[in-house]
Design brief:
- With about 350 residues, this protein is mainly α.
- The chain contains 16 helices and 3 strands.
- It has a 3-stranded antiparallel beta sheet with strand order 1-2-3.
- The longest helix has 20 residues.
- It is globular.
- This is Integrase.
- GO terms for molecular function: DNA binding.
Length: about 350
Amino acid sequence: MDFEYQVNITPEEICELYKIDVHDFLVLVEGKKTIRDEKTILYVIEEYILTLKMNRIKSELTIKYYITVLRKFARFLLLKKSEYKMVDLTEELFFEFTDTCKPRKEEKLTARTFKTYQAIIKNVMDFAHTRRYVSEDLRFKIEKFRGELLPRYLPDELIPQILNQAKQTNWPFLNFALIYFLLGTGCRVSEVANLRICDFQIHEDLIFIRKGKGNRQRYIPMYPQVKKVILDFLARTGVYHWDIRDESYLFSKRCYENREPIMIRNIQRMVTGIYEKIGIKGAYTVHSLRHTFAYNSLSAGMAIYDLQEILGHNSIETTTIYTKRRPIDLKNAVNKYPFPLEKLVAQIMGIGEN
């Protein structure tokens, strides 16, 4: 049996009464799943950047990197001279953008950088949905990157070469100490640049990381040789007695007082310059020092969950990347358990039989 209802209130009045959007109400009533596309990608990017600048969770370095990538994406869109709406942000458009982001001529983005770019753009899409600029989460339009990210470990024979070359630079004691510290702690370059003398807690053999990724803090163990190298460096720069109240920067080109921090980009340039001197530039990055620490720790029998804490990984999945063996290790494993191929072929083909 059908019933007829007489409604004496308009949709506009309902929306005014309950403080909801008329468009959203009509979509709900009509059972449609439409997407509001009035906001352009450029508009949402600018709004997202404003939100990023007020973010207190991500580190300053991360925020700066996000903004750099987003500005690059905005310039790409402006050059196309088309007002792309959020619903136009597809995987094809993203791929077209990344194809223009070649760090050097005829070179594509690395898998790691590509994955980071993708995460940033998908964050913008999530932001648009949260702000109700679109009525549907559009992140499904860009499929999650499935490419494998392989860490780059430094072979054992290269480490002495790198350390010896550090001694030939303009700041030999500083650069030697920096590289030794990176190899012996697995810290990120950004974390090292922010270390203070009081963070290097020699009595507890602990190092306090005050500004890790996402502004997270943690303690990491101090290996005896790392401790010896850093104390030697401090003594050479005028710090003869460790003081827990000393908040001067640990790594600095300045001696004694007024120890100014060394810039992150200067550490990166220094390491890259050393790689170039010994003929391995392009094969490894500054982050390879961190990868090498992780690999050596696991090889020595460290539990992966302990390594996760030391590296400051939020997810164990990130740490498992370092469980992948080096090609030389796989080769040695094969040689250790050889497959009798020659004998098998001889039996099948009759080779060697009289």
